[in-house]
Amino acid sequence: MHSKAKILIIDDDQDFRRNFLEILVRSGFLAEEAASGVEALPMLQTGKYDIVMLDLMMPKMDGLETLREIKRLGLKSKIVMITAFSTVQNAVEAIKQGASDYISKPFKVEELIAIINRTLEEARFEQAIQIGDLTKTLGSLANPIRQKIMVLLGTRGSMRLMEIRQSLYIEDHTKIVFHLKVLTESGLVEKQLNRSYELSPSGQEVLVFLQSLQTRLHQQT
Length: 221
What we know:
Order of helices and strands: EHEHEHEHEHHHEHHEEH
CATH superfamily of the largest domain: Response regulator
Distance between the termini: 14 Å
C-alpha cells in the first residue's frame, strides 16, 4: 500500500504543485494535481486517492472549506493539510474538521515522506477498528505519533511536554502540542496542574485494548 499509494495535491501555486508532484513520483508514489478545491472535487469522487495533500490558504474555496466538502460527500481519502502558518490553532481546527495531519512550508522531503507513511498507517489502522462504538474513540489514536504518546505515558505514568518530544525524537514541539491537544480533547489524556501529562482512566483502558489489538494484528501478518 505504501509504495503505490495514490496522492492528490491541491494547491493554487503551480510551481509548488509541480515540484511536489515530482518529489512524490521519485519517492515511488502515484500522484496527480489540482489547482483548487473546485477542480479537485470531481477527481476525488472517483474514490481512487489514498491521501489528499490540501493547501490551507487558497482563493475562493480555501482548504478548510474544501475539507468540509470532502467530508460532507463522504469521501474516504485521508487529508493532510499544507500550511505556511505553523500554528496549533490551525492544525487543531483542521483535525476537528477531519484532517489526519499537517505539514508546514517549507518542509524537508524526509518529513513529508514520514507524514505520508504515518497517514497510510492510520488508514490501515482505521480499517482494523471499524467495530461499532469503538470507532469514534479509537479514531483519535489512528495517528502513530498519538499511539506512541499513549504508550509512553502508559509506561512512565507522567511526562512533561519536552520529555515527550525528546523521547519521540521530534524537533518541532508544536507537533507534540498538537497531538496532545487531540488526545486531551478526546478524554484519553489529562493535563495536570504541574503541566505534566498522564493517561486518564479511560485512556488506560483504551491503551490496554490498543496493545491487545496490535498484538493480534501482528500475529495475523
